[in-house]
Structures
1.
Amino acid sequence: MYDPVITQHMRSELTRLGISELTTPAEVDAFLARPGSSLLFINSVCGCAAGSARPGLGLFLAGPDRPANLGTVFAGMDLEATSRVRTRYDQLPPSSPSVLLLQDGVAARYIHRSEIEGRDANAFAGLLRQACAELPG
């Protein structure tokens, strides 16, 4: 587990964007039960989270086409909440950072860390726009 003082700004980057923190398994379950389109961001302390994923997510969310529900868990910090996500979607390889796009709680697209690494924030925002445009419904 990381020092909460050190990671607070990493959390704040997301909450300032209107993304709900999910810190318990019950909060994860409630989020995953929401109808409609959802984006679940698995946060991380790594460099690609800081340099590409969080800034790119901010750029994406500044646009008009965004999922109805926005949530985040912090790998390495919200251990039980992150574990609940990974247990619910155990067919997906664990990755942080990563993005899980859902339609009515069903995994529709998973963006693994390998798709984030090497992209700048603008390219990651573009990947999110494309992925969301392909969501069913």
2.
Amino acid sequence: MAKRTALDDELEALLTPTIEAMGFEVIRVRLLGNSPQILQIMAERPDGTISVDECANISRAVSAVLDVEDPVSGNYTLEVSSPGIDRPLTRLKDFDRFDGLEAKIELKQAVDGQRRFRGRLDGVEGDEVRLVTEQGILGFALEMIDQAKLVMNDELLKMAGASQSDADSQ
């Protein structure tokens, strides 16, 4: 997992208003790689869905903003996508929504000599993300978390399949 940078924060602040105005929530904005760079935007509707056509619409809208503001030096490829099944967890509501599923969390700074944790999400208490690990129940303020994501496993695949069945039946 790549470490979040100040430029990532700047890009997210620049692009979020445009994406939200289109009815989507920004999950993550990251500038990845060196040559070529990839500007990755993950977004979804509040109900957790997004279509290929909607990704293309977001791409066109943010391209216009990026052309005017020109915040990235050098060449890059713009990639707009859904967060996917093993999605990054970036907001308190993500940790609450996926309560009970397995996740990996990497902290910005080590706590008791450890930066990486893996366990079962135990929701949110105040502004603290809770994780059940072999060490017990741990709590991390969202600001302490550099990155977090769901772990791909049978339980997650089963949940994703059930969600897709629900979406198909509507």
3.
Amino acid sequence: MEKESDEAILQRVGRGDEAAMAQLYDRFAPSLFAIARRIIGDEQEARDALQDGFLYIWDKAADFDPARSKAFTWAVMIFRHKAIDRLRASRRRIRLNETAAENLLDLESPRSERADISLERAESAEAVRRAMRSLPDEQRQCVEWAFLRGLTHLQLSELLGTPLGTVKTNIRRGLMRLRDLLQEVVS
């Protein structure tokens, strides 16, 4: 019996065949994971890109045209884009973390400046400290360690012994809560 082609399996996936999706995953995942890891440079982010890519394939497999490319080539292009998107998002997060840390440090550093500006800075710094203290402990800790100490989500997960998704959720919820609390102060 001949081995079914990648293209035939992908076409079955396009018709909603879950067994074909499992078969495609078994064939492609090791190579596609290696590509994503090489682009991103982080194993956990590469795993996330792998999941994103296979979800995309599941959704778009019906659009695959075997006359235009091989199934593996089509998948490589999808995973390359997913990995690059994750890499860019990671770099944006790092830049935002650095900017937020600089802003928080600026609020705490004394400077010689006009009295009204100094008072405004002191009030802003106190508002940030109050807002941080009002966060639940797990959110406050994750936000502080990610933004002030520069730890990655994965480092936090390992340090706290908490699932990565929980760390990401705590940071996101903490930042959203801070935004809401600080908007009330500004308004």
4.
Amino acid sequence: MKNRKDRIDIVNEVLEECILAFPLSSFVISLYQRYQRMGSLSKKQLIGLHSKASKISSLNPAKLATLEAIIKRMPTRYKSEKPPPSPLFTKDENIGRMIDDVLAVNPQHKGVLLLKNKYDNNEPLNAAETSDLKKFHGVVKKIKS
């Protein structure tokens, strides 16, 4: 196997040509520093380098073609879609039926209207509120019977 130093480094050559052509470009300078430090560039960075290098008329087209081949050889990474957010609170249908039953008999019941408002806004009912609703529902059942 050949050492890295023995091979022709097209990416480095293209970076140096870009630095000579665009000496004030912070993008090219940062790519060059990263390449010197890390030894490689990501696919998106190489695509950006290719677009900058294609603007240089004196650059050998073979170097651009080699850079393009390096880009095509690299894997394209796709981010998977996030799953849809699950609701924080799922409505209990029994509670909804109990609220409707109580309000059918007494539509002005302030306590049950408050619980209905919380239920409609997808807010969970605490244990005390649920027990109160069960008491009201029990009274309504006795009235209907």
